[in-house]
Structures
1.
Amino acid sequence: METLYFDANWKTTSKENASFYRMQPFKKLGNLILVEDFYINKTPQFQGYAFQDNEDNYVGDVVWFDQDGFDASFYQFYNFSPVSNLTYYYPNGKKFKTVQYKNGRKDGETILYHEDGTVLMKGKYEGGKPKNGDFEEVLNWEDYRLNKADNEAQKEEPIRMMEGVIIRDEIGNAKKREVIKKKIFWINSKQLAQEIWYDIASGTTEPFKQINYDKSGKMLQTINENDFEKYGREISNGIVYDYYFQNKFVVALKSKITYKNGQKNGEETLYYPNGKVLKMVKYAQGEAQGDQIEYNSDGTIKAKRIYKNGQPFEGNFDERFASDLFINQNYSKGLKEGEAIVKDESGSIVAKGIYKDGKPFNGTFVIKNENEQNELINVADYKKNGVQKIFDYYLDDPIKTYTVVNDIKNGETVFYDNREITGKLEYKNDLPYDGDLVTAKNRTIYKKGNITEEIFYRSEYDKKDENNIQKTIYFENGKRTKIVNKSFLITSDRQDSYVGTYKNDKPFSGYFATNFNEFNHVDYYENGIVKYQYSNNYLENLEKYQYPNYNIKSTYKDGKIVDGPEYIKLDRQFVSKYWKNGILQSFDFDIFAMHYFNRYHFELKNKAIELEEFNKKVKGKIVLEKINGKTIGKFSINNKLLVTSSSVEVNSAIPTEPGSVLYYEINNTIEAKLFTTLEEDNDEERRDAEIFSTVFSSYLNHNKTIEENFNLIADKISSEKDVELLFGNELKGGLIAGLRINEAKKPEIGTLILKNSNNSYDLKLFLKEKKLMEKDSVELKNVKTEIENLTKLLEQKMNQDFK
């Protein structure tokens, strides 16, 4: 048996200078070797299989241990080797577990053994996924790593099977379960520490039960299905136990905290591996509150601190900053006060400064600036002075450095990308003066305080590559003069780049693209007048929005599109209007939401407004007809006439035609429409056509032609305010009241509005043909408020009758 010794950097060395060692010869399985490394104090440091010809190319499960022998990190690699069965061992050489593989993934039986050789648990995988039995781990079954040897062999990575989102059954219906369990044992024992029960019937791993035990086997708690997060696998109500692990066996309790409704609640206790308390923190509704006490490993108090509303309030605190920095600083009544020392992971001091009144006073500090960026600042008498550094994750990987004198930028700013300088810019009196101002995707060039060029890139990388330039804008005396654009292609006029010239900082001649992300187009100008618009079917080109091809041409006249599509972008909607010879032919109303899209199509055709809904393929029609000298609106869905409407005079006469009278406040007057429902049993079709129904009831004007109504509806839907009314819960289109007239031609329920001789209004409230309340001579400005009061009275009366 030969021993190899390594120093802290894993270079071979003598035993006297070693930090790690490795025993040879290795255990061999076919072309694989089992690599086992140890700290110099004989604590395990690593165990895992690798290819014999390259011990850095891992196979199967690999685990690293920290200097105390506890699990530090664990990964599973694909096993494309000829060896389909892998055996792992305890530090004393006894068999620990066996794993079977097929096509790179775990497939077949996995067995965990006690040191005495007896079986602790068995589990079976199929296609890499836990199928039945008991397992060390369940949730990482799809997380395999592909090593260099596999890449070199051009092995094709198997399809990654992603876990779905858990949505728990709120109804509590009985369902057939397929149960697997994750089991964790106390070390050197056959006693369980924790077991979690999962249901895999739905194709996901859904926990529905957890039990925790102490070393003696006493049950500490049982977590049932309703105590897990509704959309996750974490405990929402109960105690969360964390442990010190060695080869996934529990060595000791690491921490415990009670959760209530998904938030930390009560006292969290952290422990040393020897069982003594390390730290105690109190929580209320997820936030640290009150005293925190930290102890030394011998049980003596190391520090006392106070939290308030989850934030440090009083005492000395150790806080992590960015990815590799640690700050020790003092708080007094919630403000940083006194010395703050920043160290990196090696323990070297990288910043030291004094806070006064919660503000950096003198020295160097790491802070979050106003843009939430990490920054190393130099301060004297509360003011930044000298070179400051903005960085991302690591201090030695800056985004930029800049020079400040008494809080004012004066001097050189240097920009970096991956530790390489990408630009330099001189500031004078806090303003850019000479050089390049570089951000992630653009570069602005200054000369003697003025912008001369602004360059935009497709990608934040490869800024030196000409092919990465998207567009360049040129300036003179602070005003734009020209734009050279490579961000699009006009298929009828193919050019490597498209040029537009400005006059007085406004488009004058050539091509000018919008910048709406997915909803882009290009306007073409001649002598300051927009002539054409180039666009495309954006639904067919969503994947090409970074370099769109435009194959549709629209023509402008007097600043308005008269031929071709016109686009109007609203907050959550998009309107496309289609013109021909100055006449609107049709328009599309597109709605966007998370994982949702729908289109409503309106078209003027054959003296009717034809309607079509994209998702459910609903077709409809709105027409106006003269019947007995009266204009009647008709609303049909799928060739079924659902509703008719007509205007109703608001005067001293009570309407007598059966139906629903709706009153609208429009242009400082009250108008009314009578709606008669013809198809009572078509509720589903009405729901599918709700937008069309709202348009019919709210927007149709019986005193205008169908062509005028079509244009009116298009204008309304192109307005952000009117669109919000379509989807909001408030009354739509100025609607203020409603009244139902029954077949006996009498007011049955609702509010009747009559205009009297002095141009005020009489309001009468009805329920079951009986008049409940009357308000006479109400001025127009008070009508809406009085109707709201009458509606409340009607609701109260109906609730009383219901009881």
Note: Residues 2-152 form one domain.
2.
Amino acid sequence: MESVSAASAMIVLMALRVSRESFRQDVCVLLDRIHGFYEAALDRLLAGKIPSLAPRLLKAGVCFGFLDPVSNIIANTISYTPSPEEEEKDEGDYPRNSILSKIITNTNDRQVFVIPLSPERLECMTVARRSLEGLISFLIFHYRYLENTEALRYLRLSGGDLLAAVRLIEQDRHKSPDEFAFNIISLTTKIALECAALSAGHPRPTVLVGVSLSLASPLVKVSKILRAHCSVCPATIKPLAKLLRSSIDLAGPRINKKKKKRKRDDPSPANTESPEWKPGTHAAFRHTQTLKLLLLGEIHALYLEALARLPRDGLRTLHHCSLIKGGYCYGPMDPVSNIILNTIWYGAQFPTHQDFAFDFQVDMICTRTLMRIECCSLYGLVTFLRARFSSLTEHDALWYLLATNVDLWLAMKMVQESHHAICGTDSDAYKKAAVDSWHPDPDGLVKFATSSLDIEPVKLSHMLAHTLDNCSVEHLTTLMSKFSSTKSKEQVQLLNEVSPRSKILNENQKMLILAIRKKIKADQEFYVKKVNAALNRFSQQKAVDYELHIICGVNPKVTESSCVNLFKKRFKFEYFHINFWVTPKGSPGTPLVLFFAECSNIDNDEEERPSMCFPVLASWIDDARCFCCEHHGTKIVHPLLERYNGRSEDFHKMASGKHGVLNEFIISSYDLAVDDMHAKGGLDLFRS
């Protein structure tokens, strides 16, 4: 297996644009590695003495799973039982060289380098090439925003070992050992594994999933037998096959989507053939777009936290508007504090004209406008960092921001430690960042960001670390009033000449604004009604009354069940997913709780499909996946059903009961992924 030193040597290559030659080279190197796995597996299986194993290997002996690749081939071969008709058809003598000739892939065939393979091409491919297809499929279905070529490079760096590639990706995405997110028996892993089996043309994908999950469980006997680098004698084949097949039933409670109890905190099995991992080594991202999408996920979490710290009354009347217009996450403090300070400052400097303000209290932040300010913040962060370090590329700046969880000053420190020369001033960098992120008053932002408030830094940090009250906001507003930009006489005259909307808008524009405002109000009333109904149900279970703080994300396009025609769906969707912050009633100062809800899109459908909601943790944002939300590009934080089941029996009963819509959405996401793989045989699905 290639060592990490080899992985480090590839960092420069990965930073370059993927060329056709490098892509073909990656495929050839990986196929050569996979061919070696099959040679080792044949030696241990003694296929010449057990002819019936040869056709099984060629059909089902793929090299992916949760053991080392050679052990995966053996386990997948032995666990597959063909039908009597197939066994009769496959009878005959299979010499070792004859088997190898059917495994070795001819790289002169151009079709070998097509990713993903169509179902027609898949049937003509060797088991080695189909294994490569499954490896790529697993990675891109398990990890958000991972491109095919990027998955291919990770596999090359890991020597074709799936768990080693997973470790590389986790390290690249800056997961410390304490927050290693990969969980072998999670539903996301099960989805990715079955999609991998389907894309590899495995004759019985559910068998492969069951065996792989069972081998990751405490069936140490099987694991030890397969991991031992010795021959598997004929006398052990039958009992081993029986144990493998029976282990599927033993693993049933974990892999059956309708079962209730599952253990979710079991450690992943060690991979004895993984490369030696050294601290600080990584395989840098090659795709800048991947970095941007991952960073936007991190930034979204920061904005959710900022919404929880702003006072409820202020959000409903003022801050909702100033946050989505000027609440950037770059500034002199940590990202969340910057969002709060920029929001308050912008609201003081650019109050919304009464003719354009809503005539109702706002309980919902528009999902798309929140995504807009998050994108603008990303542009500003990258521009600031590159303005201070002229040698940084856009890719490098994104990487450093991801490494420091979007903390600009920590990123600057890391860049300096990497021996990049600093240049320019903070003022110049702020000015360029404000322009590139379309701030309405760049000069005012520079003056505000480079000045200090008349308050002790420690006191200010402590104040911003908790939910603010109205008095604190008023105090901060007063302190910020001196940081407005100096406007020219022409600008002052132009502002004084701005009259009510009756003089600057025509009749059609007025009607359009009224229609939009009416639509927003109607949508908000609908969502608030559904959220309150869900909160009431949850409060009855927990005996705690909650009050809505703010709705911070809505996806109204969620299917009721699996549907291979999701992309073509034009009619009304059955459910919507929603995030919102709540606070316990009568408990001032209590930390807010982020909730997820799935509710029916029909107004009067509470009896048939009642609204359900559950709390989620910020640390789960990158873990739980919903293909419906990802397909539509909507950032909704979903709860991990598996993790929560271990914490609360009441939650489990609610989620998996007769009207457990949360369980339905997870199952439908699973079916949607697998069904579409069945229907199209491709990999480029559900990509945000």
Note: Residues 1-16, 246-285, 642-672, 677-688 have pLDDT under 50 and may be disordered.
3.
Amino acid sequence: MRTIDLPACGPGHSAPLTHVGFRPDGQRLATCSYDGTVIVWDTADPSRPTPLARLRHRRLVNASAWNPADPEVLATASADKTVAVWRVGARGRATLHTVLARHTDDINSVAWLPDGERLICVSEDGRATLWSTADGRFLAEVGSHEAHCMMVSVSAQGLVATVGEDGLVAVGDPDGPDGPRTRRYDSSIEGCAWSHSGRLLAVARDDGAVDLLTAGLDVVRTVPVSTSAARAVAWAEDDSSFVVGAYDGALHHFDVAGARLHRVEDRRVWPRSVAVAHGVVAAGSFWNGPHLYDLATGREIAAPDGATHGPNALAQHGDELLIGTDSGLVVAVRTDASGPATVRTTAFTDGPILSLATDGDTVYAGTYSGHVLRHDGTALTSSAGLGAPVPSLALHEGSLVAGTYNGEFLLLTPGALDVVERIEAHDGSVKSLTAVAGGFLSAATDRTVAAGGPHGRSTLWEHGNLVNAVAALGAEAAASASRDHTVKTGRITRLPDGAWRAERVQTLLGPDESVKCVALLGDAERPVVLAGSYDFGLHAWQVDWDDSAATLASGRVLAAFAQGLSCMLRLTDGTVAVAGWDGRILVVGLDPAGRPAVRRSLHLGELLTLPTTTTHRAGARPTESRAA
């Protein structure tokens, strides 16, 4: 397993924050990150959070939990499939106490039992397991899900609640004789939190609502929160209110009766995790540190001081390669195979750009905050809020198509960015769109790859898990990348009745983890497929449509990155640009024998140190707080 190796970003993190966790006294805050580290901050003065200790895993860290019986003990859970237990002293000296035996998949969440001696771990393998932290012994399996188990919360009475992508909520007593009680929802549940009294369990639903449940899983109240999925919940210490982080990019504060108290929007915030202690709210970030707010008013107390520039999207703009980043910068690089790079940056927004598309001199960007931005070289225009992040864009027959986390295609006017039509396209987030002659391809978390126009689409094939990306070679071949650790590729044709069909579909093996991005090179009769994975590898296959066994044997690792790969783009000259979250940008082409080879290697961090031309910045304020 390769280890994350990212350059430092000041005293904070080098990549977005995945989790925040207050110690119960509010004096310490642990933040976890995609950079593979946990930082423990001194928050005695919440206006000046100060780093005390930095703890390291080999892969991204998903969660942490402070021990309820010993305030110096912290558990951390990682995609390296381990849970580590640390002792962090008053002066920040950190020592590793134990590492729980290697799990079979990424650990998404951890929680202590009230005795402070046992720890519950939940994993992407669907299991909830109980461990003794004194000696690292496995004690029992206390629950299981049919898909990824996303979060665990333990009540003051020792009841364990787990939720997962299978829509299951399970509550049980690991010391009791009976199995867990369950409640099933129609879609993924990613967050849950017991109130401090243990009387209520808040469950964050994929449809944007939060259910307040009894310990017996009866619904006390359903609270509509957002137009996009609710992701995380945290309770005030007196259980009178709770804070919800949602995929609309906002923090929502409600009283226990379901009345909205206030809402905080900041495009730098990544609200996949929230925490509350002593009247202070902490939230994750796409920048290098936590965001802290006053619980009562939503007023900002402290914010991170540095942007991270992980690349999320690529596009071609004339002879420039455009790179959309976590910081909201679009970096334009003009380069050939041997000449020096020249760089131009445009600050579209303060939050992540998830997708890019171009039409002549016009550049479109889809954002995590749920907007589409248009830059025509002079002025920047923003759509109204679309209600969900926009991870995919494509141009089709005079319309701009935006694929959203809500599973919709939104048809926008290319000029004013007005929404003309909303179409329920997939049963999950539309992760990727690719224009082809006569239509466009789409990939989604409902496991499908589809083709056609905005309506009446044809399913080309399905994966065993969500699909992260789809790519095309003209309108003759396509490939897709999935969390099931595979790439699929096939010949595609459009039938006389307008439907689309896939033939000679092959499954390509190689990556050991989720495959994030994909591209095709060469000729459709014998293409080369490139794919980037969370295993840090750039994989390549030579496709033989008549001999799938030969294709299977052809897979190899072309290059290794220092973090997962994020996006790819087939360029007009027959090469492919490949970006990793470590900031590395490769240009890959075919050698005279038709084999893929790296032609150019650049690094985004180094490019941003070159003399640059900076253009228009978004006019919207980065932070807004609105009363109910």
Note: Confidence is low (pLDDT under 50) at residues 616-628.
4.
Amino acid sequence: MKKIFFGIVSLLSAVTIFTSCHKLDVPVNTELTPDVFPKTQAQIVAASGPVYIALRSDFAGSYWFSQSLTTDESVLAVFGGNWLDGNRYLELHRHTWTKDNAGVNALWYYASNLIGVVNQTVAVLKDLPASQAKTTTIAEIKTVRALAYYIMLDNFGNVPLDTLYGEKGLKPTTPRAKVFEFVEKELKTNLPNLSTTSGITTYGRPTQYFAYALLAKLYLNAQVYTGTPRYNDCIAACDQVISSGLYGLEPASTYMQMFYPTNGPGQKEFIFAIPYDASTNGGNMIYARYDLNRNLGIRYLYSGSTPGGFTDPVMNQSSGNGLVNNMPSGPRMTTAQFYANFNDPNDVRNKQWLTGQQYWQDGTPIMVKTTKSGYDQFYTGSDGGSTYVYPLVIQPLVDNGSRLGASAFDLGNDEIAWNTGIRNIKYLPDYTNTINRNQNNDVPVIRYSDILLMKAEAILRGGTATLGATALSLVNNLRANRTTSAALSAVTLDDIYAERCRELSWEAWHRNDMIRFGKYEGTWGLGKNNADTYRRLFPIPTSAFQTNNTLTQNPGYN
């Protein structure tokens, strides 16, 4: 199933030649010209390939980092000075970033580049003869552009609106409320030309129901973006998805499988997902690379064709086990504050976390062999080089709890440090890939469970209940498929927030949620205590001003 999307863009190299050529004083010895490509329906769809390459390029990288590392959901700490990376992760965690932060710069480039690629592709397709394939393809990629502008709207607020490829003149920043209006209009205008089919034929491309889902997300946050609530509009957009009958909730027995390396078009909760293929260039899915490390770099083997979870972990030492290509990078962990939301022992979503003592499949404790000094860098005995064997136990990260000092972002460079921090393995590590550190797990952008939670929240915030559903019934419907604990008898906004934490962790929505629920200025983790409200927006990077001096910087960053 993974090859479906990449088959669609199999002509990518040809498209790239077509869309980026320049006039050269050499003869053209190729049959690939605008007269012959794109012409057929398949070629027109293939011509949109660069858009999807740009979409997936850094979604699981800089975009995810900016949405998660700035919240209590995750921390990428330093270990003995490793992964300091110019303080980019420290600044994101502590809300001390500047307009020169590398992560902020990468986020701006990711979204603005995606917009540019869409503009260029629309310019290629717009002069083709009228056809259903042309109409649908242009609607699809303009919907991707609406997503890109939603990302810009959500993260940077006032941004330039530029929708015409080749147009001369620099675009100044447009007020956030006007960008909101553009995204809303863009989605509504293109929605009728999008497919109403969900499944293999449309997987990885926007459908009408993704457009409605993105509208729901836009309306749910309208109070933040424009100062005017739009909760009934959010509910109406959610109802379009719900009433389609095309989507449903996965039961607890298959919840975790939604995120396996074998996920794809068969996932009935995926309204829109980004397909990843570890062997394909142009965007990498790297979640597990940053979730595991050293002794936690666990190799998961499969039973037959279906991932079996913790079936046969093999300790990933630095060499000698055939896993050199899959060596994890700096490990992300969650905070005590975020993990506190996982307080129901009967909830299947607890299985996404590695915490406590770790065992082999047969129940035998995993033992790690090192030295006494290797285990504890502060060991003072004369026998520090002696062998030391200990059971692998993952300890939670304690707020401001580094052994290097309460203000330290460095946890140390020993086994105690490496085993600190509860890890998330929602996107099951894909060690069937022996070529590189990338993964085959597709990443959902919006799932059906998010639709139910958005509708429930909108009702609690003052919207009108519809389709016979209440906020309580919607939340209990979701929980019935996630936990065997008793249904809730009442639901509050705090309950909705906690449910969103449990359901959508590691899915790039937590920053958005924390801001909407007024929790972004809180205190957590390794020294996050900055309460500046202007940091609900990122600064426009210095690099953006170097190419467009008509931009206006966001307040607080001058």
Note: The CA atoms of residues 335 and 498 lie 14 Å apart.
